[in-house]
Amino acid sequence: MKTLFLTEKEIDTAAEIIKNGGLVAMPTETVYGLAADATNGSAVKKIYSAKGRPSDNPLIVHVSSVEEIYPLVTSFPENAKKLIEAFCPGPLTIVFPKSDVIPSEISGGLDTVAIRFPSHPVARELIKASGVPLAAPSANLSGSPSPTSADHVKKDLDGRIDAILDGGECSVGLESTVITLVPEKPVLLRPGGITHEMLESVLGEVLVDPAVLNPLKEGQRVSSPGMKYKHYAPKAKVVLIKSDDNNYYKYLAEHSTGKMVALCYNEDLSNIKDIHCISYGKKDDYTEQASKLFDALRKIDEQGYELVYGRCPGTDGVGLAVYNRLIRAAGFEVIEIE
Ligand code: TXA
Ligand code: MG
């Protein structure tokens, strides 16, 4: 298949492809999504084969207005209204009980559906021009980090999808926050740009699913199927170091080998000598770390490193989302130095 490369001015061409049951990679404020008509089961099926994604991992449905949500769900809780009022359009996905409009290919056998109202103008225009809600997972091959630029999408999916709509770099850089309102108490399933603290400021107590911070135990039931799959881990072994600056530098110096890289903060670059470094943002700026992390992880593989010693971010605010992705890349291996 030949993949078309489209600019923001060619949204109508992209919408035609969607209407004809094709696949278009679209920019959103979080990461690029691989979009298909959410009401067309056979179009949705193609997403799974293009990405190499297991079919029981459900997809997020993207809409461009609140009204579009009503036909897709069987109940619209008061808490959903509050969240939408506070944070949408934006990097938040809400899980609702699903209606029959949602084909089984989207929901992976669950009786719920995850819905998101993106703020990126190109994504919103594409949804409107297509005239249907769009099912879209991140536009990477399963096993790669989510793409935050059209170039990342091209590296993974060129020749496997109909078109890539280039909308520049994604501002948030990590996938959306996922919250479910189906259980009695709301549960945070995946941390993202809308933080746990922000959710609690609107809803009161929001539980954090154990899979956000901990490895799954054998046979453990998961609330969000994506959690049970091995998330992106570079081919290199990744270890996180939880320490102050000097202990990090000392650890690097004592454990330095040829194909090792330090995944560090910008401020560390001038302090680390004779060791390869890739930085993922300023030390106290979780928002910048979120936007740079996936590009940094892609570089680690492109540059062929075998061992990564990464700085371990905090778990407050957007830090929780950065930590959640990094700890998975590290297979939960953290060395704590007092
Ligand atoms: O920012 C994002 O959310 C991006 C952009 C493209 O919108 N999309 C994205 O999709 O990250 P994906 O498929 O890579 O991740 C969706 C996550 C998965 O972990 C999946 O298991 C979970 O959401 N999910 C989807 N539907 C669900 C449902 N009904 N209940 C619980 N979890 C669900
Ligand atoms: Mg994904």
Radius of gyration: 20 Å
Q: Estimate the global geometry from the Cα principal axes.
A: globular
The main pleated sheet reads as: 11 strands, mixed
- Unique bound compounds: threonylcarbamoyladenylate, magnesium ion
Number of strands: 16
Distance between the termini: 54 Å
- Biggest sheet strand order reads 1-8-2-3-7-4-6-5-9-10-11
Question: Which class do the helix and strand fractions yield?
Answer: alpha/beta
Strand content: 15-25%
| Mean residue pLDDT | 94
Topology as H/E string? EHEEHEHEHEHEHEEEHEEHEEHEHE
List the helices and strands and how they pair.
Layout: E1 4-6, H1 11-19, E2 24-26, E3 33-37, H2 41-51, E4 60-62, H3 78-87, E5 92-97, H4 104-107, E6 112-116, H5 121-130, E7 134-135, H6 150-157, E8 163-165, E9 177-180, E10 187-190, H7 196-203, E11 207-208, E12 237-242, H8 245-255, E13 260-264, E14 276-279, H9 286-302, E15 307-311, H10 319-329, E16 334-336
Helix pairs in contact: 1-5, 9-10
The structure holds threonylcarbamoyladenylate and magnesium ion.
Overall description:
- The protein has 338 residues and is of the alpha/beta class.
- It is globular and about 60 Å long.
- The protein is 29% helix and 19% strand.
- The longest helix is centred in the last third of the chain and has 17 residues, at 286-302.
- The model has no long low-confidence stretch (mean pLDDT 94).
- The site of magnesium ion has 3 residues, from loops.
Give descriptors for this structure.
single chain; alpha/beta; eleven-stranded mixed β-sheet; globular; binds magnesium ion
